Amino acid sequence: MEGGRPVAPSDTGSTHQRGRDELQVKLEAARTAAAQRAVAEERARIARELHDVIAHSVSVMTVQAGAVRRLLQPGQERERLALEAIESTGREALTEMRRLVGLLRRQGTVPDFSPQPSMRAVDVLVGTIREAGLPVELAVEGEPTELAPGVDLAAYRVIQEALTNALKYAGPAQAWVTVRWREDEIEVEIANDGRSEAAGDGSGHGLIGLRERVALVGGTIDSGPRPGGGFVVTAHLPHRGRM
Q1: What is the mean pLDDT of the chain?
Q2: Residues 202, 169, 227: CA angle, nearest 5 degrees
Q3: 3-class DSSP assignment, residue 25
Q4: SS3 content of the chain, % helix, strand, coil (to 5)
Q5: Per-residue model confidence as pLDDT tens digits over 179-234
Q6: In this predicted model, what pLDDT tens digit does every residue of 138-153 receive, in sequence order?
Q7: Domain residue limits at 148
Q8: Largest CB tally within 10 Å, which of 97, 135, 172, 182?
Q9: Do residue 215 and residue 158 come from a single domain?
């Protein structure tokens, strides 16, 4: 009854439909907001990590320029001016990088200047995941080459995130990591034979962050169910990153 009047079945049905529609809109908005937060958090993490590796490289260049300058003879004025310019530019670059990255750090966060992980430490990562309870096999194809810092970090993070997800969600499973070094790219493939439904359609926040990271260096990443059961993540990254 509504105000002494019986409620027609059609009125009740339309009210329920409006409620479902409103709930669906709210759920979509929440998913969109969560995805945006994941992207923003990953960008901030990328900025911090690249700051650390690039700051180290620029510091080494600046120190080396100063060391060579001190070895110059009195008559080498042109060389001295060039090296002083390198030192000054290096110091200015470091100052500006710290200022810009500081904008992305949360208030009160202590900067982390520990060495960043790289593909040279993948065997250590795999060993750590094994010790945590997930059997993992590592295979490397081709000859390793030097990667740009951002590419190196991105490849490592793809493997780390995929193995961590398998450890958390795949249940009793076996995992395989394959690293393929090609002429102008590195391919990493991480597969497991666990519960593929636990990973859903590959739209989890971790994978959203990985897509952002990989795209920033000019690479691509795919994920989905593995033939025969399980889940697989594959990324292709150019050696030198996006030019």
Answers
A1: 79
A2: 55
A3: helix
A4: 60, 15, 25
A5: 999 999 999 999 999 976 544 445 555 677 788 889 888 999 999 999 888 999 99
A6: 999 999 998 988 899 8
A7: 119-238
A8: 97
A9: yes
CA 111, CA 105: separation in Å to the nearest integer? Answer: 8
Q: Are residues 75 and 135 in the same domain?
A: no
Read off the tokens for 162: 């995929």
Based on the structure, what is the number of domains in the chain?
2
Three-state SS for 210?
helix
Taking the chain, what is the end-to-end CA distance rounded to the nearest angstrom?
69
pLDDT at residue 13 greater than cutoff 80 = no
Contacts of 159 (CB under 8 A, 6+ apart): 122, 125, 177, 179, 188, 190
pLDDT at 72: 86
Token code pair at residue 75: 């008559």
Share of the chain above pLDDT 70, in %: 76
Tell me whether residue 243 is in a domain.
no
Contacts of 214 (CB under 8 A, 6+ apart): 154, 158, 220, 221, 235, 237
Q: What is the DSSP string of 11-24?
A: HHHHHHHHHHHHHH
